[in-house]
Write a structure and sequence with these properties.
The chain is 48% helix and 18% strand. The protein is built from 8 helices and 17 strands. The strands form 5 sheets. Strands 7-6-13-3-14-15 form a 6-stranded antiparallel β-sheet, with no helix packed on it. A 5-stranded mixed β-sheet has the order 4-5-12-11-10.
Length: 527
Amino acid sequence: MRITTKVIQKNQLNNINTNKLLQDKLSQQMTTGKVINRPSEDPIVAIRALRLRSNVSQVTQYYEKNAPDAEHWLEVTEGALTTMNDVVTDMIRQCTDGANEYLELEDRETILDALKALRDEVYSTGNADYAGRTLFTGYRTDMKLTFIENTVRKYSMVEQVDSSFLDEITHVESGELNTLNSTNFESTNPDIAGIVEQDVAASKIYRFRTSYDNLDDVAPKLQVFKEIDAATGEYVFEDLLVNNAALQVSNMSIYEDGAYLDVGANEVRMLRETGEILLGEDVYKALVALEDNPATIENEAEIRFTYEKSNWKDGDLRPEHYFACVGEDPDDATKTISYNRDYLQGIMEKQAIEYDVGLNQTIRVNTTADEVFYHAIGRDVDDMIRAMEDSATMLKVIEEIEGMLKSGKYTPDQQDTLNQQLEAAKKASALLNEKTQKLYEAGITKMQGHLDNLNYAVTSVGTRSKRLELVSNRLMSQQTSYETLQSENEDVDIAEVAVQLTTADLTYNTALAATGKILQTNLMNFI
């Protein structure tokens, strides 16, 4: 093969260009720190890099964003539940003190003040939020658990219960003895002036206690299960019939005469101020007799009480978080908004908020209001407060009468009247004290039940927090592993590249020198 100067020149230039390309490649690796800068340089490394980058991005999202957000939500939730735990524990302490039948008037007033303060506090805890999202309201994170100011807005609510929600209470009838004072003890009102010990008595009342007080002046509706509509599949409820007769349904004020007395056997009576629905004996027996058939999907034992409320106080629980209800549109009072209609079909899906904290791994972060913030807590306290107030009021009446008798400024006939009233007041006080004591003893058990449910919720949050901690630890390990693999796949060894670049530079310069010396000699040198 004939080797010409042209061939030598061409080969030398190709070799020099190859060295220059290597030098350029090593220089780019040195400046970028990456093995390749274009997928075409090494498709296998490029594909592996894309996969590893995707893995690192996912793990980083889970570890640095989702997991910490979930952790903070759970921490705030646990703090709110711990506060409520302290409140309910203090309620139990007050119940224990109130169960003492030998309390002085000052002691009763102290317990009353404490219970009222605790009642106001128990639900305000439910308005706790994290990053502007209310913790305990399910998907309605933009809405507080309670009304945050006095509000006028009409709601029609349906409470779906069973016979376990019905109870018996003791009513002490003492006429208007609790209003007696030095100016009216001789009034023409026989419930004050003419009352004697025999007129004071305790009676048993059957009732359903609604979740709210101060209800609207509208008679409640009581319905029981009838059937499932074959065409629509919807539950059909009808008004309760007792002894094949329609109920006598009415509403009245607790300040009307006989509000708690003479409830007819077939009668349902709502007391607006207290939110109690009194049941006649036959009505109570008919409701208690309802039983659910576990072999069917029907709700044969379900009882529905429908009532209305328009005036809400700061701290009242919002009904849309608990019941199927219809409320006025806050922006247009001529329109209504329906909430939780699925509840009427037995569909009460838990509004759980879950965070993705790993591949196919989720953590539930929220606790819903129905798990811890029961209406029964406040309503139980309301019962105890009313009972203690009635008992304290009667003690004040006794002190008033005894003071009047000791004053010596009344005639013998007036003293006889006062003595009769004093005996009646003492009997009423004894009956009210007995009622209060039993109510507070029962309150200890009820509050302990609320506390148990609360502790279960706290434990559930703690369990989720522990699981999240384990997931976070694993994510940290995965992040380190993926970043190591990514570095091994993409990053260059700077020291090795530096040596190679120095070698390439030396080779390039040597090639230039050799080529220059060789190409200096040509045919003209020999002529």
